[in-house]
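Hey, quick one: can you model this chain's 3D structure?
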Amino acid sequence: MAPRRSEQLRSRRTKSARYAVGFIGGGNMATALIKGLVGAGLYRARQLCASDVDPRKRQALKRRLGVAVSADNASVVRETRVVVLAVKPQIMDAVLAEIRPAITPAHLCISIAAGIPTSRLEAALGPRARVVRVMPNTPALLGRGMAVVARGRHATGADERLALKLLRAVGKARAVSDERWLDAVTGLSGSGPAFVYLFAEGLIAGGVTAGLSPELAEELALQTLTGAAAMLQETGETPQRLREMVTSPGGTTLAGLGELERRGFLDAVAEAVLVAARRSIELGRG
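Sure thing. Here's the predicted structure for all 286 residues.
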């Protein structure tokens, strides 16, 4: 079904792009990036556009963020020169086939889809497509994300710097020279927040079992995680050293750590990262 006229991006007769950055996919990560770019003063809302198949997401983007919206992915490509591919890996091939006729050498495509390698994106988008692959994570929703960037064969240093600039509007970002690292990045920082949330669930459940109210257990657990993260980032000490500082011989912390060790806690966490990284590789194969 063709998009309604009111949701079509107006086409310009000039060759210059109407919008600075366009987003294909209007989910949480795209929303976070748009909010970050506007909030950081990099762009105004009217310089951004987005497409999504879900009319509710389009309405939310237009109403809450003030960006132009469309149901037509190709129109986003035609009206901008920087395209952020913010769709699920499972539908990426269909989206790439849809937008390929509109892609030109002037376009930079930045993919935030887990597992999809630049070689696959380049093959789908045509000869000399300029592609940068990014692995962000969900704390970007609060401006505290961690993203890693790797550029494809035809992307330039300037393309990489632009991608970093966009991602730094919602947290930290760095580039790597070996794209293969992005699967490990996916397993660690991409999936890592969920592992931390599961640990938080365990802390809360333990507190309740020990006799605390659910409300108090949650408050204690969340502030403990917040404080511990700050210690890791601000003291300059290693995780091992900070753990040793809290652990007294014969004390309560040592007893708890002993139980975690007995149940294989460290091995389980490390294996979770590896399994997630392997799944990223599988997604990249299609």
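One thing worth noting: Residues 214-234 form the longest helix (21 residues).
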